[in-house]
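Q: Hand in one record:
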Amino acid sequence: MASNYALRLCEDALPADARHALPPLNRVIYSRRGGVGVAGAADHARVAEDQAWHGAGACQLTAERGGATLWRWELIRDAVAAGDTRAGATRVLLEHAIDLDPSAEYLMRADRVDFAPGGVALPHRHRGGGIRCLVSGTLDVTVGDAPARRITPGGAWFESGREPVLAVASKDDATSFIRVAILPREIRGRTSIMYVNPSDAERGRPRTYTVYVDEPIALG
């Protein structure tokens, strides 16, 4: 039975030494620029540029000396405020409903996908839904029967995992995006991709993956 969950991506622009308190939620924080400290009830972590962190408890973010720009994915239920940085600015880049079974077991995965110039991800599906956000280059994304959409840096899109997706990267520039997905826990450490044509797994132009987070979560 699906429930009323949503995945939301926010961008936090924090000036130097700014602090931002966050309520308990399953979340991933990726540093797009600069570094940030994350202080929880029992531990403290540092998220450097192009690194990511996962947690579920209440925490406080503190931007480092040069400030930071963060992408923050949160799994929410019902209406949950996106937060107010007070000393900075928060923008909701995308929020989308996601079908989850409260009785099932899930994990939250964050990774980076890098395409070589002209890279192609042939039609495929995934084992769960998630939000992607482009870091560099351009990507023409076709989801299901919808028209192709050109994504540029900072652009975000949702994939449910059910519709086939075709992604074609810039012919001239390296292209990369960060994605956070909610996936069945039994595939921890394994790929979530399923090609429409299984032979396509051996085709296509090169792309590489960097996994930052692959952690079990509890639905609360």
Summary: Residues 141 and 155 are 11 Å apart (CA to CA). The mean pLDDT is 92.
